[in-house]
Structure formats: C-alpha cells, structure tokens
Amino acid sequence: MKHLFIATSLSLLALSAQAVDIAVPAAEVHARVQQPNQNLLFVDVRDPVEIMFVGFTDAVHVNVPFLMVDRTAWDEKRGVYKLVQNPEFVSQIKAELERRGLGMDAEVITLCRSGSERGEPSASFLRSNGFPNARYVIDGFQGTPLKEGPQAGMRVVNGWQNSGLPWSTKMNPAKMYRLDKH
C-alpha cells in the first residue's frame, strides 16, 4: 500500500511538473518574441472569426486554428455551435516551421482565448505529435472571467489583453488563417 501511495504521488508530481512546464505567462512570451533569432513559433490557435470579434496581437507569427466552429452542428448542452479539430493542424504547424527555417524541436507557443479550451490542449496535442517544446500562454488572450462582482463573467483580468501587451481590434491579413490562401 505504501509503495502504491508513493508511486501515485510521484505520478501526480510528474503530471504537475509537465503542466507547469508547458504553461508560459503572456509577458514572458511577448519579451521572447521581441528577441532576434529566436527558435520560436508563436501561434494564435483561435478560429479567425473569433479573432475578428475579440481582437488580435500582431506579436503572433501566424494564426492556425486548433478547433474551428462547425456552423452546421449545434451543441444543445452548451448552447453554441460545435467545435471540431482542424484535421490539418499538425501539417500546417510543420509548414509554418519549415517556412521560417525551424525544426520540430523549435518552441511552439499557442495562444487561445483563455488558455484552457484550446491553448493547453493544442500544446499537449503538438507534444504528442512530435513537437517536444510545445507550450501555451497561461490565461490566453482574454484571460479568465471574474466569478463575482458587478463584472462577473467578464474577462477583465489577466491574459494577454489585460496585461498591457500590444493588441488591436484589427487583424493582420498576412498572418490570418485564410481559406483563399491555402
């Protein structure tokens, strides 16, 4: 029993260390993107329509959606359109790395709205598909919603947008995922 407890504890510590290892604060990502000759690809993994309404940071190198809105499928439980995984995600990330002369060992940092629904899952997915240095931005672009107070439900703390980092309501068409360019 004691050995089982120790083994379980060590497994949980390893999982916890991995989760911390792949999470990166927004300010750190911004500082690293500004450095010359970085072995880094910074990817916004949101659906471009979401970016159009929420905002964008031109600090990202490219937009490659991890999950995309399927406007033909409704999720009754959540009351939203269903999200489907981009079947070309891995090949599109590989292509972006190759275009920049980077290998699969380059650091790939993903950015989504909150860091949880697409940021962490996309980084984990990339790691399981041969990208050992995939990470994600903690709290994503907009941050986490407040739980209490007059602004409950609003994303007004943490995340890229609320950290004083550069962002805009304007999209950069050269960096956006566009079906007319694939």
Automatic annotation (TrEMBL):
It comes from the Bacteria. This is Rhodanese domain-containing protein. InterPro entries: Rhodanese-like_dom (IPR001763), Rhodanese-like_dom_sf (IPR036873). Residues 36-153 form the Rhodanese domain. SUPFAM superfamilies: Rhodanese/Cell cycle control phosphatase. The keyword Signal applies. Keywords: Signal. Transmembrane segments: none annotated. It comes from Zoogloea oryzae. Residues 1-19 form the signal peptide.
